[in-house]
């Protein structure tokens, strides 16, 4: 299922075979929270810009339109017209991000919907059932993401509960994958390592979940307020304790520089809202760093966002025109910036894979980082 093709230091070039196709790693998953990329980007666009995996959000789709609706429509792949892999996160991050709207208990989490205030309960079994209804390729285990500034005592109790929840997730997924009416009976389960910035808690948790022989392992609870240096320190400690022969996913990370550093530490999977969120605000990525297309200096700039870029925006439009669209609040401006940013990330991952194959990853990383400065 997961096969390492080449290593360059700790950086891994691998293939991960799933029921919806083979994923070439390292990979950046394009984030479509509510089964769509924000910025008017369609699944037909995702194919054109080289997207391998789309990521959708369990909590948001449960709230609207409802996972039962998606199941009746044949699952998420049919619903959104996407035939490649989909990863669904478990709803656990919303436990962290909706702190004012929830209550955590051993059985699960009691939420208030951020849309209409109605009461929602989600525990490990409910999260697995929702994700089974969505019929994603990869389901994430239900966890709690403690704050990076939480006390050691709180983090330890939280991690212990996350481990108990993971066992419940696995039991429920095994049950669901045997049901006749389950759309994707080959759904995979990734467990999530937590522990905030406490290395010893992280390492002990990584070893405990590694023994559970899951389909893949994620490192969660980073990029939530700690420094980049702290993130890299935790990855240095944790990744070697996770099974090398399984995919490793760094959740919610990050900048191009974060990705380059994490690949160097053995990470395979990434996702982040940065490319789409920044694009919607006219901030675009290039190999010479980020540009803000709202700046007046681009008013008469006839060049594409980046010379040589083959994305739909750069092949057809100038910086001046895209700036005009943004200033005029035309949705096309936002769409073109998001397309460019996602293409930039997908292309960078392609270059990373090539560099690892050729044994030149250190040179590639150094050159890329120097360009961003």
UniProtKB/TrEMBL annotation:
Binding site for substrate: 89-93, 143, 194, 221
Name of the encoding gene: tgt
Cofactor: Zn(2+)
Residue ranges constituting the tRNA-guanine(15) transglycosylase-like domain according to the UniProt record: 10-370
Keyword flag tRNA processing: yes
Entry protein name: Queuine tRNA-ribosyltransferase
Pathway of action: tRNA modification; tRNA-queuosine biosynthesis
Catalytic EC class: transferase
Lineage of the organism: Bacteria, Bacillati, Bacillota, Clostridia, Eubacteriales
The EC number(s) this enzyme carries: 2.4.2.29
Role played: Catalyzes the base-exchange of a guanine (G) residue with the queuine precursor 7-aminomethyl-7-deazaguanine (PreQ1) at position 34 (anticodon wobble position) in tRNAs with GU(N) anticodons (tRNA-Asp, -Asn, -His and -Tyr). Catalysis occurs through a double-displacement mechanism. The nucleophile active site attacks the C1' of nucleotide 34 to detach the guanine base from the RNA, forming a covalent enzyme-RNA intermediate. The proton acceptor active site deprotonates the incoming PreQ1, allowing a nucleophilic attack on the C1' of the ribose to form the product.
Organism from which the protein derives: Lactonifactor longoviformis DSM 17459
Active site residues of this protein: 89 (proton acceptor), 271 (nucleophile)
Keyword DNA repair in annotation: no
Record keywords: Glycosyltransferase, Metal-binding, Queuosine biosynthesis, Transferase, tRNA processing, Zinc
Oligomer and partners: Homodimer. Within each dimer, one monomer is responsible for RNA recognition and catalysis, while the other monomer binds to the replacement base PreQ1.
Similarity comment: Belongs to the queuine tRNA-ribosyltransferase family.
GO biological process: tRNA queuosine(34) biosynthetic process
Gene Ontology cellular-component annotations: cytosol
Xref: NCBIfam families: Q_tRNA_tgt (TIGR00430), tgt_general (TIGR00449)
Molecular function terms, GO-annotated: metal ion binding; tRNA-guanosine(34) queuine transglycosylase activity
Catalytic activity: 7-aminomethyl-7-carbaguanine + guanosine(34) in tRNA = 7-aminomethyl-7-carbaguanosine(34) in tRNA + guanine
Pfam families registered for this protein in UniProt: TGT
Positions that bind Zn(2+): 309, 311, 314, 340
Note accompanying the cofactor annotation: Binds 1 zinc ion per subunit.
Region (RNA binding): 252-258
């Amino acid at each position: 299922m997961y096969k390492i093709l080449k290593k360059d230091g700790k950086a891994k070039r691998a293939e991960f075979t799933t029921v919806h196709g083979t994923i070439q790693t390292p990979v950046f998953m394009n984030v479509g929270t509510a089964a769509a990329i924000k910025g008017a980007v369609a699944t037909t666009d995702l194919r054109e810009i080289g997207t391998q995996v789309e990521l959708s959000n369990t909590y948001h789709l449960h709230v609207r339109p409802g996972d039962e609706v998606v199941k009746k429509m044949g699952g998420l792949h049919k619903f959104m017209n996407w035939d490649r892999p989909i990863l669904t996160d478990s709803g656990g991050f919303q436990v962290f991000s909706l702190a004012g709207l929830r209550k955590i208990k051993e059985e699960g989490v009691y939420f208030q919907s951020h849309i209409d205030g109605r009461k929602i309960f989600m525990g490990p079994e409910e999260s697995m059932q929702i994700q089974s209804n969505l019929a994603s390729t990869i389901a994430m285990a239900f966890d709690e993401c403690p704050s990076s500034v939480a006390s050691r005592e709180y983090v330890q109790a939280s991690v212990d509960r996350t481990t108990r929840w993971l066992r419940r997730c696995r039991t429920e997924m095994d049950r669901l994958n045997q049901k006749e009416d389950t759309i994707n009976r080959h759904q995979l389960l990734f467990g999530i390592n937590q522990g905030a910035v406490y290395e010893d808690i992280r390492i002990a948790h990584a070893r405990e979940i590694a023994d559970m022989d899951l389909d893949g392992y994620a490192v969660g609870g980073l990029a939530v307020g700690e420094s980049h240096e702290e993130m890299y320190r935790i990855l240095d400690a944790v990744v070697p304790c996770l099974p090398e022969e399984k995919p490793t996913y760094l959740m919610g990370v990050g900048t191009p520089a974060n990705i380059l550093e994490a690949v160097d530490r053995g990470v395979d999977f990434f996702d982040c809202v940065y490319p789409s969120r920044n694009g919607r605000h006219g901030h675009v990525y290039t190999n010479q760093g980020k540009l803000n297309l709202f700046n007046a200096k681009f008013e008469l700039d006839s060049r594409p966002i980046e010379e040589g870029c083959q994305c739909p925006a750069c092949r057809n439009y100038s910086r001046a025109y895209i700036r005009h669209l943004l200033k005029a609040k035309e949705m096309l401006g936002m769409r073109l910036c998001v397309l460019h940013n996602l293409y930039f990330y997908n292309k960078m991952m392609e270059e990373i894979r090539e560099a690892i194959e050729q044994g030149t990853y250190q040179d590639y990383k150094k050159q890329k980082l120097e360009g961003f400065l």
